[in-house]
């Protein structure tokens, strides 16, 4: 059984331990550290009872490997004993009858604190949407929503102060066997508008990650240099069906003028969602910029997604063309609970890498079969991400 050394900060205390690679964060907290305020219900990322803060963001500890939190700062419900905002929430939950058996309460309080910090004063509708990843079997939610709304009154949203999360793009790309020659890790920056810099190497694909810009949105930028002149490249990229066929899981069901209807299939851990929605296409042949933006809803999970894909064709430094691809998204509902951990960001980073790889293949005249797009669906992406992480823990990726 392989074990790994883990060093993390839990409720402000430095902890060094050794655990099996498969150990979940919830297990480490409850069994090793006796922090039993972190409750475990479904153990598959759905109920939210196990939610803790990891680097300032709520995360499901039941589906987070402890080893993946190496170097992170974890705060459980016990770590908020002296927190003024948590005090207000506890008090409001009691007064509004926001708990009965209390099983869901630690996860609810942690999520509620995050909602108020991110949004400030907000509506009951928005609170219900944000809370959709936390299940309560007792209360009917009315008191919980009232309590959160009361505490949110008069508060302003705060910018995220969480430290940078770690992303290792090259390892992820290698693990899933997609043709990318990017070989170094790319740090993720949380500073608004800041682009994590990575000097172009000899590789054709240069991934970089940026967050910020619009509040609550995340985005990823990918760059690709190709040996064709910009007018030839733009000729291909002005075909919206061709562009969308490079995005795994995406399907256009209707295209009329600049209006588009489509579907995006995502399978993430135990959740399978199909976002049905519509959007707008914008093509600017003079600037050689294309933009596809829109939103959709998955009725099963109640999650909503807004997204924008922008591609820009520029002359290459010496010859050929440089293609910049920017993928931005915002999730709400149950899926958003996953996204505030690192996994969804990694998966979307991977999705963007595959999109660029498919784009490159299409420009070279290589056929990207429908089957290839399907088999590179998000389920395999998740496996690619997890496999890369496990390899990193074991020190196998050199
Ligand atoms: Fe983790 Fe249910 S126990 S989400
Ligand atoms: Fe019992 Fe929420 S109070 S599950």
Describe this structure in words.
With 398 residues, the chain is an alpha+beta fold. The protein folds into three domains: 3-79 and 163-171, Beta-grasp domain (Ubiquitin-like (UB roll), Roll); 83-152, DNA polymerase, domain 1 (Orthogonal Bundle); 195-397, START domain (Alpha-D-Glucose-1,6-Bisphosphate, Chain A, domain 4). The protein is 31% helix and 27% strand. It contains twelve helices and 13 strands. The protein has helices spanning 25-32, 84-95, 105-119, 124-130, 142-152, 169-175, 230-237, 240-245, 334-339, 342-363, 370-375, 378-394, and strands spanning 3-10, 13-20, 51-54, 57-60, 73-75, 205-211, 218-226, 250-256, 259-268, 271-284, 289-298, 303-315, 321-332. An eight-stranded antiparallel β-sheet has the order 6-7-13-12-11-10-9-8. Strands 2-1-5-3-4 form a five-stranded mixed β-sheet, with helices on one face. A hairpin with a 6-residue loop joins strand 6 and strand 7. Helix 2 (84-95) crosses helix 5 (142-152), helix 3 (105-119) runs parallel beside helix 5 (142-152) and helix 6 crosses helix 12 (378-394). The longest helix has 22 residues, at 342-363.
């Amino acid at each position: 059984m392989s074990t790994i050394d883990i060093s993390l900060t839990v409720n402000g205390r430095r902890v060094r331990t050794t655990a099996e690679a498969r150990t979940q964060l919830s297990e480490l907290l409850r069994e090793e550290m006796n922090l039993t305020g972190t409750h475990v219900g479904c153990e598959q990322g759905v109920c939210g009872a196990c939610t803790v803060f990891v680097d300032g963001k709520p995360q499901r500890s039941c589906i987070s490997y402890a080893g993946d939190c190496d170097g992170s700062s974890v705060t459980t419900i016990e770590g908020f004993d002296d927190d003024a905002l948590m005090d207000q929430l506890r008090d409001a939950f009691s007064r509004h009858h926001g708990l009965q058996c209390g099983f869901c309460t630690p996860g609810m309080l942690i999520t509620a604190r995050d909602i108020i910090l991110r949004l400030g004063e907000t509506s009951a509708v928005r609170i219900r949407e944000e809370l959709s990843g936390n299940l309560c079997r007792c209360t009917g939610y009315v008191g919980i929503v009232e309590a959160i709304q009361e505490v949110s009154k008069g508060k302003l949203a705060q910018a995220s102060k969480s430290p940078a999360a770690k992303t290792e793009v090259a390892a992820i790309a290698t693990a899933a066997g997609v043709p990318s020659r990017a070989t170094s890790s790319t740090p993720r920056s949380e500073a608004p508008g800041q682009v994590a810099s990575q000097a172009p190497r000899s590789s054709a694909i240069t991934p970089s990650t940026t967050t910020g810009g619009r509040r609550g949105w995340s985005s990823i930028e990918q760059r690709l240099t190709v040996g064709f002149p910009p007018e030839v490249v733009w000729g291909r990229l002005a075909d919206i069906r061709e562009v969308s066929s490079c995005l795994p899981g995406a399907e256009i069901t209707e295209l009329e003028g600049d209006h588009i209807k489509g579907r995006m299939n995502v399978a993430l851990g135990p959740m399978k969602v199909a976002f049905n929605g519509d959007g707008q296409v914008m093509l600017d042949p003079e600037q050689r910029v294309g933009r596809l933006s829109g939103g959709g809803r998955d009725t099963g999970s109640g999650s909503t997604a807004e997204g924008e894909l922008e591609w820009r064709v520029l002359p290459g430094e010496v010859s050929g063309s440089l293609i910049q691809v920017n993928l931005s998204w915002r999730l709400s509902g149950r899926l958003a609970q996953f996204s505030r951990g690192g996994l969804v960001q990694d998966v979307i980073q991977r999705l963007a890498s595959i999109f660029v790889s498919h784009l490159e293949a299409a420009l070279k005249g290589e056929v990207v079969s429908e089957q290839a797009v399907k088999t590179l669906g998000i389920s395999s992406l998740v496996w690619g991400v997890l496999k890369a992480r496990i390899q990193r823990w074991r020190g196998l990726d050199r």
